[in-house]
C-alpha cells in the first residue's frame, strides 16, 4: 500500500498525504494552492468554468483531457499531470496561442467562464490539429458562456491554429519528459489515503480491486465521479470508504473478439465512442451526446450501468443490442443479459463484493437495423427526457426479432414487451408500426417532471418508433437535426 | 519648459472612440488573473457565511430551533432577524416588503431564515442544514391563475391609453382575442452572488459586492446595520455576468455578510452555491397577456387592448417598473390607432422576480408580435407584411401608447435593408416549396423588428457621476458610477476619456467602482451605462482640459484657439509639447488636475398616473431574420441561419457592440426556446442548476450567423459621441427564432392557423403545437 498521492501540477511534483478522500480538485486548487484562475460555476460538472486539463499516460504516451475540476476528487489525480489556466502563459508573460486567439476574437466578456473555455480549447489544440466546426462545438459543449453567444469563442478555436502550430507548442515539446515523469510514478501498489473510516483506495489491479471489495463491502466504487461527485458537492453526503477504479490496469481495455466487442467497465465514453460508432453509428452519436467532453473524458460505461439510473443513456442501447454484462468478484464471475441487471429504481443485481467487470456487445447481424434517439431540451450536454433504442431484425420484410428499450420512461431502463410483441412476426409496415406505437402506451406509465411531461414522453416515444420506420424504409427521408445524417441509412 | 520627453506625432491616439478595442480585462480573463470577489485573498480570520432556507412557500414560522446549527463543528455565530440592529429589510423600492431574514411569516420556498458563520465554507454549509423549523402552512399562491383569482398586487398597476380602444376594436372590420403565456428566465450569470465584508473602525464596513448597484447596496447595508451611509463603502471591480440579476439581488448577500462582519468583528464572505443562488434570487417575470385586437381586412391594427398579468413573487422588488416597461413596449415598432394597456403585478408565494435584460420590455414585445402573427394568419399574409403595414410612420401615425412621439423611427428602412441582405423573400419561397413536399422536417423563417426605449423610466435614475484625476506624469485615473459586468463599459468610458484628452488609452487607469469616489449612483442597468457614465466622464475630463487650456493661454500668452489637443501632445501657439509636460507645468502653477463630472439625461419626463410623458430620450432599433428546421415527430428544432442588422448609432466600440448583439440574441433565443423554469406543487423550483436549467450551448448558436451593425446612422440625439445603448435591445432579436419555429409548425396545417406557441418553445411545447394543428385540420 502506498499512502501518498503523487501527481504533477504543471511540472511540479506534488506528494499529498492525508488528503480528504472527497476533496475536489477545484477546492484543492483554489483553497490549498491558491490557484484561483479555475472557477466554480455550478459544482456539478455542467458549466465547465472549472475545466482543467489532465494529462495521463495512455500506454507510454501522454494524453491531454479536459475535465471538470469541481467533481473530480484530488486523489484521483494520482499518476497524472494537471494543467490549469495559470500554466499556459510563458514565464515572461507571453500568452499561449489559445489565450491570444481568445483576446484577438473578443472571446471574453465577463471573463468568468473564460479560463474553462481556454482549457477546453487547449485540450482541443493538442488533440485535434484541424477540427471541423462540429468538432469545435463538441469540444466546447461542456462549457457554458452566458455573455458572448459563443460565436467569438468558436472563431478563436480556429484562430488559435493560425497563430501557431500545435506541434511547435512548448507543451508538445515537453510531452516526452512529462510522460517519463509520470511513468516514474507508475506502480502496482494500491494507493490508500485518508484516516479512520474515511479512506480512499485506488487499486492498480483487478485482483486487488476484488480483494478490497471483499474487505470493504460497504465501499463506494467510484470511476469518473460524474454522479458521485455531485453527491459530495451538491448534497454534502459524507462518503466513507471509496474505491477508485481509474488506476486498475486493464479495466478500460476494449477487445474485439471477432463476434463481439468486449468493453472493460472502466472504459470512458471517450474511449468507447469510436469503436462503438464503427458498429452502431447511432449508439456512437448517443454517446457523443452524453454530458460534455469533460464528462465523457472521465465517465465510464461501467459507471453508467452500475449506477442504475433510469436516465442513463447507454443502458437502453445496450439492452436493444442484446449486450451481456459481466460481474466479477474475488470468488469468480457471472454474466447476465444486461436488462436483468436493472431490478428496480436504485436497485441492481450486484452483490456488495461484486463489481461490473465488462460489457460484451454482439456485433450487428446483417439483417438487423439499429436506431437510437435522445430527446432533450438542448441537443448537447443535456440529460434525456426520453432515450430510445430499437433493434429490429428483418427477414423478407417481416420482423423476426424486435428489441425496444427506453430510458426516462420508467424507474429503470426498460424493454417494451407489448410493443415488441406487436412487431414480431409481422410485416415491417406503417400499420404494424402504428400498432406497436399504440402498444407502447401499455408498456409504460412515464412520470412528469422538469424534463418533460408524462404525455410528451409517451407521444415522443411512440413517434420515435415511426421515425425509425421512416428511416429504414425511405432512403430519401430527411429525419435528423443533429449528428451525422450519412450514417442514418447505413 | 521641460523638454525631456520626445514628442509623439501619431495621427491618431490608440483606443479613442469609434474603434475596435478589446475588453480592458481580456488578458486577465484568459490567464485567470482577473480577480473576482471569491478570488480576493481573504483577510486573516475570515468567516464563511451560509444561509438557512425555508422549506415552505407560505407558512407561519412557529419555531426555529437552531441549537444543532450553533453546536455544529466550526460554527462561530448564528444570526436571525432578532440580531439585526437596524431594519430587517432589503427591498429596493423602500416598500419594506422584503425581509433579510423571515421572522414569523414565510412567503416563498427558499426564503432565508438565518445565517450561520463558520470557520470554513464547508462547515457553514453543513451547519445551515441542521435547523429545525416548525411551520403552520398557509394556502400558497403559486400560479398566475391563482394569483389572478386572489388579485393581490405587489405594486399599483399602470394603465396606458390613447383613443378609445374598446370602441375601435368593436367597430373594426375584423377582431380576435387570445392569451399568451410567456415564461420567465434565470439570469445564469456564471459568477454567482457573492459578498465579502471587512469591518473597519467605529461603525465602518467595506463590502466587496458583486452588484450592478453599489449605491443601493450601500444604503441597504446602512439600514440593516443602523449606521449612516457614510460608514459603508461598497466596491466592485467586476462581475462575472449580471444581466439584471445583480441590480437588486445583491442586497441580501451584501447585507448578510456585513451583518456578520459587524457582529463578529471578523471579515465575512457569503457565497451561496449555484442551487441556492437560483432558488433565492428573482428571475425574469413570467407573464400571461390577454389581448384583443381589431383590424381591417388588410391587417392594419385599429385598436388593441392588453392586460399584462405578471407573476411577481412575494415582494415588489422592481416589479412595478418591470411591468411598466412591458406596457411601454407593447407597441414594439407598431402604431396603434387606439390602445388600452394595463399591468397587473401579481403577488405570489414564489421568489420575488426582478430585473433581467430588457426589464419587461421583451415580454411586451413578444405580446405585440403574437398579435401581428395572429392577424397575419387571419388575413392570410406573411407576418412580415403585417409588420410593415403597422410600422410607426408619418405624423398621425407616430405617437406611442404613452403619448411620446417617435422622432427617430428607422425601423422601416432597417427592416427593408435586412430583408434584402438576408434574401428573405427568396428563402421564404424556397421554404414554402420545401415544406410543400411534406416530410417530417419542416422549415420556417421569420423576420422580426425591435424598437427599445432608452432611459430609466424612473427619471431620477438618469444621472451619473465620474471622477477623473490627472497625475503629474500625465497618467489618468478614471472612476465612475457604472459597474463592469462584462459588457465593456469600463473600456468604453476609458475610450471617451482618452479621446477627450487625446491620449493613448493605456494612459488611462480603469479603477474599481466604489461608493467612496462617486456617490449616489444609479444601477448600471437599462442599457444606460455608457450613455450616462460616458457623458459624466467626458464632463470631468473636459473640466480638467478647460483648466489646462486656460492655463496655457495665460502661461504662453496665446489666444485660446491656439491651444489644441493633438494625439498625446498639445499645440500651444507654434510649439507642440507632450501632454504630460503640459500637465506637469500646470501642476507647478497650482492648477487643479482633478475633477468630478456629472450628467443628467435631458428632455425626459414621465407622469405615471397620467400615463403620459417622454420617458425615453431615444429608441434603439434592430431586426433579425431567423431560419429554423423543426422535427415534427419530436418537436426538436435547429437554428440554421440568422441575419441581424442592429442599430447602435455611431458605435463607441464596434467590436464590443457586436459582442453585445450576438450575446444578447443568443440569450433572447434561449429565453424563448429551451430555458424553462419549473416549480413543483410544493412551490419548490426544480430547475435550479445547469443540469436541469438549460441555457444555449455552443452548438445552439445559429449555424450561419450574419451580424451587422447599421452603418451611417448616428444617434439623432446628443448622446456620447452619437452612440446608442446596446445592452438590452439585442436580446429581443431572439424573437425571430420563436416566430420561425411558429412558421415551420404552421406548415403542417397548410399555414391556415396561427400556431400560438407559448414560449419557452421547448420541444415539448412545439410538438404539442404541431399535434394541435393536426387535430384542427383532421379532427380525430
UniProtKB/TrEMBL annotation, chain A:
<keyword id="KW-0285">Flavoprotein</keyword>
<dbReference type="Pfam" id="PF03450">
    <property type="entry name" value="CO_deh_flav_C"/>
</dbReference>
<keyword id="KW-0274">FAD</keyword>
<dbReference type="InterPro" id="IPR016208">
    <property type="entry name" value="Ald_Oxase/xanthine_DH-like"/>
</dbReference>
<protein>
    <submittedName>
        <fullName>Xanthine dehydrogenase small subunit</fullName>
    </submittedName>
</protein>
<dbReference type="InterPro" id="IPR002888">
    <property type="entry name" value="2Fe-2S-bd"/>
</dbReference>
<dbReference type="InterPro" id="IPR012175">
    <property type="entry name" value="Xanth_DH_ssu_bac"/>
</dbReference>
<dbReference type="InterPro" id="IPR016167">
    <property type="entry name" value="FAD-bd_PCMH_sub1"/>
</dbReference>
<dbReference type="InterPro" id="IPR012675">
    <property type="entry name" value="Beta-grasp_dom_sf"/>
</dbReference>
<dbReference type="InterPro" id="IPR016169">
    <property type="entry name" value="FAD-bd_PCMH_sub2"/>
</dbReference>
<dbReference type="InterPro" id="IPR002346">
    <property type="entry name" value="Mopterin_DH_FAD-bd"/>
</dbReference>
<dbReference type="InterPro" id="IPR014307">
    <property type="entry name" value="Xanthine_DH_ssu"/>
</dbReference>
<keyword id="KW-0408">Iron</keyword>
<dbReference type="InterPro" id="IPR036318">
    <property type="entry name" value="FAD-bd_PCMH-like_sf"/>
</dbReference>
<dbReference type="Pfam" id="PF01799">
    <property type="entry name" value="Fer2_2"/>
</dbReference>
<dbReference type="GO" id="GO:0005506">
    <property type="term" value="F:iron ion binding"/>
</dbReference>
<dbReference type="InterPro" id="IPR036683">
    <property type="entry name" value="CO_DH_flav_C_dom_sf"/>
</dbReference>
<dbReference type="Pfam" id="PF00111">
    <property type="entry name" value="Fer2"/>
</dbReference>
<keyword id="KW-0479">Metal-binding</keyword>
<dbReference type="InterPro" id="IPR001041">
    <property type="entry name" value="2Fe-2S_ferredoxin-type"/>
</dbReference>
<dbReference type="GO" id="GO:0004854">
    <property type="term" value="F:xanthine dehydrogenase activity"/>
</dbReference>
<dbReference type="GO" id="GO:0071949">
    <property type="term" value="F:FAD binding"/>
</dbReference>
From TrEMBL, chain B:
<dbReference type="InterPro" id="IPR037165">
    <property type="entry name" value="AldOxase/xan_DH_Mopterin-bd_sf"/>
</dbReference>
<feature type="domain" description="Aldehyde oxidase/xanthine dehydrogenase a/b hammerhead">
    <location>
        <begin position="31"/>
        <end position="139"/>
    </location>
</feature>
<keyword id="KW-0408">Iron</keyword>
<dbReference type="GO" id="GO:0016491">
    <property type="term" value="F:oxidoreductase activity"/>
</dbReference>
<keyword id="KW-0411">Iron-sulfur</keyword>
<dbReference type="InterPro" id="IPR046867">
    <property type="entry name" value="AldOxase/xan_DH_MoCoBD2"/>
</dbReference>
<dbReference type="InterPro" id="IPR014309">
    <property type="entry name" value="Xanthine_DH_Mopterin-bd_su"/>
</dbReference>
<keyword id="KW-0001">2Fe-2S</keyword>
<dbReference type="GO" id="GO:0030151">
    <property type="term" value="F:molybdenum ion binding"/>
</dbReference>
<dbReference type="InterPro" id="IPR016208">
    <property type="entry name" value="Ald_Oxase/xanthine_DH-like"/>
</dbReference>
<dbReference type="GO" id="GO:0051537">
    <property type="term" value="F:2 iron, 2 sulfur cluster binding"/>
</dbReference>
<dbReference type="Pfam" id="PF01315">
    <property type="entry name" value="Ald_Xan_dh_C"/>
</dbReference>
<comment type="similarity">
    <text>Belongs to the xanthine dehydrogenase family.</text>
</comment>
<keyword id="KW-0560">Oxidoreductase</keyword>
<dbReference type="InterPro" id="IPR000674">
    <property type="entry name" value="Ald_Oxase/Xan_DH_a/b"/>
</dbReference>
<dbReference type="InterPro" id="IPR036856">
    <property type="entry name" value="Ald_Oxase/Xan_DH_a/b_sf"/>
</dbReference>
<keyword id="KW-0479">Metal-binding</keyword>
<keyword id="KW-0500">Molybdenum</keyword>
<dbReference type="InterPro" id="IPR008274">
    <property type="entry name" value="AldOxase/xan_DH_MoCoBD1"/>
</dbReference>
<dbReference type="Pfam" id="PF20256">
    <property type="entry name" value="MoCoBD_2"/>
</dbReference>
<dbReference type="GO" id="GO:0005506">
    <property type="term" value="F:iron ion binding"/>
</dbReference>
<protein>
    <submittedName>
        <fullName>Xanthine dehydrogenase molybdopterin binding subunit</fullName>
    </submittedName>
</protein>
Amino acid at each position: 500500500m502506498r499512502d501518498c498521492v503523487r501527481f504533477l501540477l504543471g511540472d511540479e511534483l506534488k506528494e499529498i498525504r492525508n488528503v480528504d478522500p472527497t476533496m475536489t480538485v477545484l477546492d484543492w486548487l483554489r483553497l490549498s494552492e491558491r490557484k484561483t484562475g479555475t472557477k466554480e460555476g455550478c459544482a456539478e460538472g455542467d458549466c465547465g468554468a472549472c475545466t482543467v486539463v489532465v494529462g495521463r499516460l495512455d500506454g507510454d504516451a501522454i494524453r491531454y483531457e479536459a475535465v471538470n475540476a469541481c467533481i473530480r476528487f484530488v486523489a484521483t489525480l494520482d499518476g497524472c499531470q494537471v494543467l490549469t489556466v495559470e500554466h499556459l502563459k510563458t514565464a515572461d508573460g507571453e500568452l499561449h496561442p489559445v489565450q491570444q486567439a481568445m483576446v484577438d476574437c473578443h472571446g471574453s466578456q465577463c471573463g468568468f467562464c473564460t479560463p474553462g473555455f481556454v482549457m477546453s480549447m487547449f485540450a482541443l489544440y493538442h488533440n485535434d490539429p484541424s477540427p471541423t466546426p462540429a468538432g469545435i462545438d463538441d469540444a466546447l459543449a461542456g462549457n457554458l458562456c452566458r455573455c458572448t453567444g459563443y460565436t467569438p469563442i468558436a472563431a478563436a478555436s480556429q484562430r488559435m491554429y493560425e497563430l501557431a502550430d500545435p506541434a511547435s507548442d512548448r507543451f508538445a515539446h515537453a510531452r516526452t519528459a512529462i510522460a517519463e515523469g509520470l511513468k516514474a510514478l507508475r506502480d502496482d501498489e494500491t494507493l490508500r489515503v485518508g484516516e479512520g473510516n474515511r479512506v480512499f483506495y485506488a487499486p492498480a489491479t483487478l485482483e486487488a480491486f476484488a480483494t478490497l471489495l471483499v474487505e470493504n463491502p460497504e465501499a463506494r466504487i467510484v470511476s469518473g465521479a460524474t454522479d458521485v461527485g455531485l453527491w459530495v458537492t451538491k448534497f454534502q453526503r459524507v462518503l466513507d470508504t471509496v474505491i477508485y477504479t481509474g488506476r486498475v490496469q486493464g479495466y478500460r481495455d476494449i477487445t474485439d473478439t471477432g463476434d463481439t466487442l468486449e468493453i472493460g467497465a472502466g472504459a470512458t465514453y471517450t474511449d468507447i465512442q469510436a469503436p462503438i460508432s464503427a458498429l452502431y453509428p447511432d449508439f456512437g452519436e448517443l454517446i457523443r451526446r452524453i454530458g460534455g467532453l469533460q464528462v465523457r473524458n472521465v465517465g465510464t460505461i461501467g459507471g453508467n450501468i452500475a449506477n442504475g439510473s433510469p436516465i442513463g443513456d447507454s443502458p437502453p442501447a445496450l439492452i436493444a443490442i442484446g449486450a451481456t454484462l459481466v460481474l466479477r468478484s474475488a470468488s469468480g464471475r457471472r454474466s447476465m443479459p444486461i436488462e436483468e441487471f436493472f431490478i428496480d429504481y436504485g436497485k441492481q443485481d450486484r452483490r456488495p463484493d461484486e463489481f461490473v467487470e465488462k460489457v460484451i456487445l454482439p456485433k450487428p447481424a446483417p439483417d438487423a437495423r439499429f436506431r437510437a434517439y435522445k430527446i432533450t431540451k438542448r441537443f448537447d450536454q443535456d440529460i434525456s427526457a426520453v432515450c430510445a433504442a430499437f433493434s429490429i431484425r428483418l427477414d423478407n420484410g417481416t420482423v423476426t426479432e424486435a428489441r425496444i428499450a427506453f430510458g426516462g420512461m420508467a424507474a429503470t431502463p426498460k424493454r417494451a414487451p407489448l410493443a415488441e410483441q406487436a412487431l414480431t412476426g409481422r410485416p415491417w409496415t406503417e400499420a404494424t408500426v402504428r400498432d406497436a406505437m399504440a402498444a407502447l402506451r401499455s408498456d409504460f406509465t412515464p412520470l412528469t417532471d422538469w424534463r418533460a411531461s408524462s404525455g410528451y414522453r409517451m407521444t415522443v416515444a411512440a413517434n420515435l418508433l415511426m421515425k425509425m420506420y421512416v428511416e429504414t424504409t425511405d432512403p430519401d427521408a430527411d429525419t435528423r437535426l443533429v449528428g451525422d445524417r450519412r450514417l442514418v441509412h447505413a | 519648459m521641460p523638454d525631456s520627453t520626445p514628442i509623439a506625432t501619431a495621427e491618431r491616439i490608440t483606443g479613442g472612440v469609434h474603434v475596435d478595442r478589446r475588453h480592458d480585462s481580456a488578458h486577465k480573463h484568459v490567464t485567470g488573473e482577473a480577480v473576482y470577489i471569491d478570488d480576493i485573498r481573504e483577510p486573516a480570520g475570515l468567516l464563511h457565511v451560509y444561509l438557512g432556507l425555508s422549506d415552505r412557500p407560505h407558512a407561519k414560522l412557529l419555531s426555529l430551533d437552531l441549537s444543532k446549527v450553533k453546536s455544529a463543528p466550526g460554527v462561530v455565530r448564528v444570526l436571525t432577524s432578532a440580531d439585526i440592529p437596524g431594519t430587517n429589510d432589503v427591498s429596493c423600492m423602500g416598500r419594506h416588503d422584503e425581509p433579510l431574514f423571515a421572522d414569523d411569516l414565510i412567503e416563498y420556498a427558499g426564503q432565508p431564515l438565518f445565517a450561520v458563520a463558520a470557520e470554513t465554507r464547508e462547515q457553514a454549509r453543513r451547519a445551515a442544514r441542521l435547523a429545525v423549523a416548525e411551520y403552520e402552512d398557509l394556502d400558497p399562491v403559486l400560479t398566475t391563475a391563482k394569483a389572478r383569482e386572489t388579485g393581490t398586487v405587489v405594486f399599483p398597476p399602470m394603465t396606458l391609453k390613447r383613443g378609445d380602444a374598446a370602441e375601435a376594436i368593436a367597430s373594426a372590420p375584423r377582431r380576435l382575442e387570445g392569451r399568451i403565456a410567456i415564461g420567465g428566465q434565470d439570469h445564469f450569470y456564471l459568477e454567482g452572488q457573492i459578498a465579502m465584508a471587512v469591518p473597519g473602525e467605529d461603525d465602518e464596513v467595506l463590502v466587496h459586492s458583486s452588484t450592478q448597484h453599489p449605491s443601493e447596496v450601500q444604503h441597504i447595508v446602512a439600514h440593516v446595520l443602523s449606521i449612516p451611509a457614510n460608514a459603508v463603502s461598497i466596491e466592485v471591480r467586476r462581475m462575472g455576468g449580471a444581466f439584471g440579476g445583480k441590480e437588486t439581488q445583491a442586497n441580501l448577500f451584501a447585507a448578510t455578510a456585513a451583518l456578520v462582519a459587524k457582529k463578529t468583528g471578523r471579515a465575512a464572505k457569503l457565497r451561496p452555491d449555484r442551487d441556492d443562488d437560483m432558488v433565492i434570487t428573482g428571475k425574469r417575470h413570467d407573464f400571461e397577456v390577454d389581448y384583443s385586437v381589431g383590424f381591417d381586412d388588410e391587417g392594419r391594427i385599429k385598436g388593441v387592448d392588453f392586460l399584462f398579468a405578471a407573476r411577481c413573487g412575494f415582494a415588489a422588488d422592481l416589479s412595478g417598473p418591470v411591468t411598466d416597461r412591458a406596457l411601454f413596449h407593447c407597441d414594439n415598432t407598431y402604431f396603434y390607432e387606439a390602445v388600452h394597456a394595463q399591468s397587473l403585478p401579481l403577488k405570489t408565494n414564489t421568489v420575488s422576480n426582478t430585473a433581467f435584460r430588457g426589464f419587461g420590455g421583451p415580454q411586451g414585445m413578444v405580446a405585440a408580435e403574437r398579435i401581428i402573427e395572429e392577424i397575419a394568419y387571419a388575413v392570410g399574409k406573411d407576418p412580415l407584411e403585417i409588420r410593415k403595414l403597422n410600422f410607426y410612420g408619418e405624423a398621425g401615425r407616430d405617437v406611442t401608447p404613452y403619448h411620446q412621439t417617435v422622432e427617430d423611427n428607422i425601423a422601416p428602412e432597417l427592416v427593408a435593408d435586412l430583408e434584402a441582405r438576408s434574401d428573405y423573400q427568396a428563402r421564404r419561397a424556397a421554404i414554402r416549396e420545401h415544406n410543400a413536399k411534406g416530410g417530417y422536417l419542416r422549415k420556417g423563417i421569420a423576420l422580426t423588428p425591435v424598437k427599445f426605449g432608452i432611459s430609466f423610466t424612473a427619471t431620477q435614475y438618469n444621472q451619473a457621476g465620474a471622477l477623473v484625476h490627472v497625475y503629474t506624469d500625465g497618467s489618468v485615473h478614471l472612476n465612475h458610477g457604472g459597474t463592469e459586468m462584462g459588457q465593456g463599459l469600463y473600456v468604453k468610458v476609458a475610450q471617451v476619456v482618452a479621446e477627450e484628452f487625446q491620449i493613448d488609452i493605456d494612459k488611462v487607469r480603469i479603477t474599481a467602482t466604489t461608493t467612496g469616489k462617486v456617490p449616489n449612483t444609479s444601477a448600471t442597468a437599462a442599457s444606460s451605462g455608457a450613455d450616462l457614465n460616458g457623458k459624466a466622464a467626458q464632463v470631468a475630463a473636459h473640466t480638467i482640459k478647460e483648466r489646462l487650456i486656460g492655463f496655457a493661454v495665460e502661461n504662453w500668452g496665446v489666444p485660446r484657439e491656439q491651444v489644441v489637443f493633438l494625439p498625446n501632445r498639445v499645440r500651444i501657439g507654434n510649439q507642440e509639447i507632450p501632454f504630460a509636460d503640459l500637465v506637469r507645468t500646470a501642476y507647478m502653477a497650482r492648477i487643479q488636475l482633478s475633477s468630478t463630472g456629472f450628467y443628467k439625461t435631458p428632455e425626459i419626463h414621465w407622469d405615471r398616473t397620467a400615463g403620459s410623458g417622454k420617458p425615453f430620450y431615444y429608441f434603439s432599433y434592430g431586426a433579425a431574420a431567423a431560419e429554423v428546421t423543426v422535427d415534427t415527430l419530436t418537436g426538436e428544432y435547429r437554428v440554421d441561419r440568422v441575419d441581424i442588422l442592429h442599430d447602435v448609432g455611431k458605435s463607441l466600440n464596434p467590436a464590443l457592440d457586436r459582442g453585445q448583439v450576438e450575446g444578447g440574441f443568443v440569450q433572447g433565443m434561449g429565453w424563448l426556446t429551451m430555458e424553462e423554469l419549473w416549480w413543483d406543487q410544493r412551490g419548490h423550483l426544480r430547475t435550479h442548476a445547469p443540469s436541469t436549467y438549460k441555457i444555449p450551448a455552443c452548438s445552439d448558436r445559429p449555424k450561419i450567423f450574419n451580424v451587422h451593425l447599421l452603418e451611417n446612422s448616428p444617434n439623432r440625439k446628443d448622446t456620447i459621441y452619437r452612440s446608442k445603448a446596446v445592452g438590452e435591445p439585442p436580446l429581443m432579436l431572439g424573437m425571430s427564432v420563436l416566430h420561425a419555429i411558429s412558421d415551420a409548425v404552421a406548415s403542417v396545417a397548410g399555414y391556415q392557423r396561427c400556431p400560438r406557441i407559448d414560449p419557452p418553445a421547448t420541444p415539448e411545447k412545439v410538438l404539442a403545437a404541431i399535434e394541435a394543428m393536426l387535430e384542427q385540420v383532421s379532427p380525430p
